[in-house]
Every structure is written in C-alpha cells, then in structure tokens.
Amino acid sequence: YGCDAVHDEL
Amino acid sequence: MNIFRLFGDLSHLAAIAILLLKIWKTRSCAGVSGKTQLLFAVCFITRYIDLFLHFVSLYNTEKVMKLIYISASVFTCYLIFFKFKATYDGNHDSMRAEFLIVPAAGLACLINTKFDAIEILWTFSIYLEAVAILPQLFLISKTGEAETITSHYLFAQGSYRALYILNWIYRYHYESHVDTIAIVAGVVQTILYCDFFYLYITKVVKGQKIVLPA
C-alpha cells in the first residue's frame, strides 16, 4: 500500500 | 542483489564494526570525528524513516540491516559524546556541520525525484551522506595523522560507496535501473576519499602509519 519504495537499496 | 552491492553492504557493516571495536577496545575516540558520526546517524534515520512510520515485520534482511545501521550509529554517537566524552578531540573536530547540513537540505528541496516528505528526506540523506565524511577527513588533516585502525575504518567506509558505483553500473547494464541522484552523490562521495585511498594504499598497506605533511 502507498509506499512504492522506488529506492530499493540501503 | 548483485555481488557489488553485497560486498558494498558488507564493507559498510565492517566499517561500522571496526569503529565500534576501536572505540570500545581502546576506550577512546581519539582521532574520530563525532560530527561525522552524528551526520551518519542523521543519514540513516532520515533514510530509513519508513521503519518508524509503518512497522513491517523484520522477516527480511533489509529491515534488519536498516535497524543495525541506525542502532550502531546511534550507539557510536553515545560512546563518543557520553561514555568516552573525555577522549573526544573537540578542538580538532571543528568543521562546521551546519555548512554541510543546510546545503544538503536546500539541495534536497530543489533537486529531487518527487516533492513529498519521505522522498525529500531520502534525498537529503543521500546528499548528506556524500559529504558526511568531511569532518573526519578535516580532523585528520588538523591532527596530521590517523591511527591505523581509523585508516582501516575509513578504507572500509570509502569502499562501500565505491562498490555501490559498480553495483549501479551492473544494474544499469543488466536491469536498466538508474537512480541518478544516488549515483551522482555516490560518485562525489567516493571522489572525496581519493587522496585518502592513495595514502592508504601507499602507506598503510605497507605497515606504515598515515602522517600528513604538517
């Protein structure tokens, strides 16, 4: 939901 | 996940562990910039703010790594500013952190992928991380030397983002994935280590200590 975490790196 | 990113994260973990061990074993944070550690703690908190917003079960390693980074950096700051405060070299740790935080915050508001709170915090964290090591490098230039263990810490810390650059090249080539802001900031960050890398490779590897021309 909501957070389309574009940044998938640490 | 690719080999470069894996070794990048391992190198980052190693750097955090080396610094913690150095401070804990020698019971001293001489030669360590408290400001740099504060800036890193701010980077982790602003970058992983999602951990606090909607708690996701800790099953995947990424969440665990984020928690390790945040807790280890906060604990390092605690050791420097509280437990071993007497050994903190405040006089030489004199670079104005505001000169790094304010421009990073300003730039994050100007150049970002999406103008929303989480994204701006992430962008701020990326820009701040690029320059967060400067107080530490400044301190070494002021004291004119770096303990060998601190040099290893810096080498691991610098290598982590250098390996990430290889990871980004890999992901561009194989996954056509590009995160321009992270890449530009990562390149700047790694360039700041260049002269240290030169000193590390030519000196520390041969067992000598890094002593800068006073």
Structure notes:
The complex is a heterodimer of chains A (10) and B (214). With 10 residues, chain A is mostly loops. Chain A is elongated, with a radius of gyration of 7 Å. The N and C termini of chain A lie far apart (20 Å). Chain B has one domain (3-209). Chain B is 71% helix and 2% strand. Chain B has 10 helices and 2 strands; from the N terminus they run H-H-H-H-H-H-H-E-H-H-H-E. In chain B, helix 2 runs antiparallel to helix 6 (117-131) and helix 8 packs antiparallel against helix 9. The model of chain B has no long low-confidence stretch (mean pLDDT 95). Chain A binds chain B through residues 3, 5-7, 9-10, and chain B through 5, 9, 12, 50, 54, 62, 65-66, 69, 113, 118, 122, 164, 167, 179, 182.
Quick rundown:
The complex is a heterodimer of chains A (10) and B (214). With 10 residues, chain A is largely without helices or strands.
Q: How is this fold's topology laid out?
A:
The complex is a heterodimer of chains A (10) and B (214).
Chain A lengths: L10
Chain B lengths: L2 H24 L7 H14 L2 H4 L7 H23 L14 H13 L6 H15 L2 H10 L1 E2 L1 H28 L4 H13 L1 H9 L7 E2 L3
Antiparallel strand pairs in B: 1-2
Helix pairs in contact in B: 1-4, 1-8, 2-4, 2-6, 5-6, 6-9, 8-9
GO cellular component, one term (chain B): COPI-coated vesicle membrane
Keywords (chain B): Cytoplasmic vesicle, Endoplasmic reticulum, ER-Golgi transport, Membrane, Protein transport, Receptor, Transmembrane, Transmembrane helix, Transport
Pfam families (chain B): ER_lumen_recept
Structural class of chain B: mainly alpha
From the alpha carbons, calculate the radius of gyration of chain B and give it in angstroms. Answer: 17 Å
Order of helices and strands of chain B: HHHHHHHEHHHE
From the alpha carbons, calculate the radius of gyration of chain A and give it in angstroms. 7 Å
Approximately how much helix is present in the residues of chain A? under 10%
Give the strand content of chain A: under 5%
Report the major sheet of chain B: 2 strands, antiparallel
Count of individual beta strands of chain A:
0
Count of beta strands of chain B: 2
Helix segment tally of chain A: 0
InterPro entries (chain B): ER_ret_rcpt
Keywords (chain B): Cytoplasmic vesicle, Endoplasmic reticulum, ER-Golgi transport, Membrane, Protein transport, Receptor, Transmembrane, Transmembrane helix, Transport
Family (chain B): Belongs to the ERD2 family.
Subcellular location (chain B): Cytoplasmic vesicle, COPI-coated vesicle membrane; Endoplasmic reticulum membrane
